[in-house]
Amino acid sequence: MNTTFKQKVNNLIRTSLTLGILFVSGLYHNAFSQQQNVGIIGIDHVGINVPNLEKAVAFFTDVLKFTPVTQLGPVSLDDNWKKNNYMQLGTGAVTIKMILAGTGANIELFEYQNNQGNQQQPGGDDIGATHIAFYTNDITAGVAYLKSKGVKVLGDPFLMPSGDTEGESWVYFETPWGSKMELVSYPNGKGYEKHHPKAILWSPKNNEIKSRSSDSNLPSAHETQTLIKQHLAIWNEKNLSKRNVLMNQVYAPNIEMVDRHFVATGYNEINEFVNSLQQKNPDYRFRTIKLETHHNIARLFWQVGSTTRPNAVSGMDLFVIQNGKIQQLYVFVN
To answer: Where does the record place the VOC domain (predicted)?
Structure first.
């Protein structure tokens, strides 16, 4: 075995071990989906021109509750820059403001002094027309809030009934300067996810597990143990109303349960699975064998069965906890 081949084998082993550790830690986010040519790993910001920077910032902060962070300018632009960027030569200096917009991409606002460009907003079917979509867990409440702030909402939320976007609700609204934006919601996921696609669209509702600079941001061992005990109570509870109350306390609204044979997203799909288990085995109950916790990761070894045969089936659940609730649940049945 030559030295080069040995190095390749060793690199492959190290890579495999690293990916295994990242998966167990809940930190593996489809690294191989990154574009290999220019190293793109995601969207940093979305830029938008506004007629009045002060009023635009006020809208994003006062209405949408975003946070302005950085500002640059006014910066004068030379004629060569304007020519290369298809700008009118008479347009003046630019001021740029970067807005932190929740967990998604940042928003970069541009205001040009003495702007000589087209002052008309593009129509919905114009080439180059764009919009920014903001995710909300409750689109009905979101629309009511926007209307209470005097924002023009373009119609009523539309729920996609079938296809890849089944379960998604959306509606457009206008900013005070006429730009079209969108509210979108799919707390129980979208239809295409049920077919186990190789790639899942990124979504701000699935907050990535971030490295923490302080353990004070992580759940305590006691808090994690309490959540897992309540998780088992959910699976043993036969009263649907009581079970839903527990789910709201323990599970994130968009919780994802991954089994070897299927993926269940949200309360409704998990409820359907729990109901089917209880109907097939009405006298079965889940019991804890062993529980291990590590920061926001927990591992539960369990058994389920009747009083006379308590260990009819055994297995292990792996939990990822975010914002005080169970976000992901990976099920392994022995």
So the answer is: 42-186
Calpha distance 323→226 (Å, rounded): 14
How many Å apart are CA 121 and CA 112, to the nearest integer? Answer: 15
Alpha carbon of residue 37 to chain centroid: 26
Tens of pLDDT, residue by residue over 304-314, are 999 999 999 99
Question: Do the strands 263-265 and 169-174 form a parallel or antiparallel pair, or are they unpaired?
Answer: unpaired
pLDDT (0 to 100) of residue 24: 43
Tokens matching residue 248: 């709201």
- Is pLDDT at 4 greater than 70 in this prediction? no
Instruction: Kindly give, in sequence order, each residue whose CB lies less than 8 Å from that of residue 196, ignoring residues fewer than 6 positions away.
Output: 263
Q: How many CB atoms lie within 10 A of CB 111?
A: 21
Q: CA-to-CA distance for 285 and 277, rounded, in angstroms?
A: 10
Number of CB atoms found within 10 A of residue 55's CB = 13
For residues 81 and 65, the answer to whether their CB atoms sit within 8 Å is no
The per-residue pLDDT for 217 is 62
Nearest to 218 by CA among 302, 126, 310, 298: 298
Sort strands 132-135 and 263-265 into parallel, antiparallel or unpaired.
Answer: unpaired
Closest CA to 324 of 235, 226, 203, 242: 226
DSSP code at position 77: -
Q: CA dist 188 to 150, 254, 299, Å?
A: 29, 5, 24
pTM, entire model: 0.54
Q: Distance between CA 134 and CA 183 in Å, rounded? A: 5
Question: 242 φ, ψ to 5°?
Answer: -65, -35
Q: Which residues are within 8 A (CB) of 205 and not within 5 positions of it... i.e. 6 or more apart?
A: 135, 137, 186, 187, 254
Is 104 in a helix, a strand, or coil?
coil
Computed over every residue of the chain, the mean pLDDT equals 84
Tokens of 203: 């979504």
Task: Give the C-alpha separation, 13 to 19, whole Å.
Answer: 10
How far CA 52 is from CA of 109, 119, 173, in Å, comes to 10, 12, 19
Q: Which domains does the chain have, with CATH numbers?
A: 45-115 (3.10.180.10), 130-203 (3.10.180.10), 218-333 (3.10.450.50)
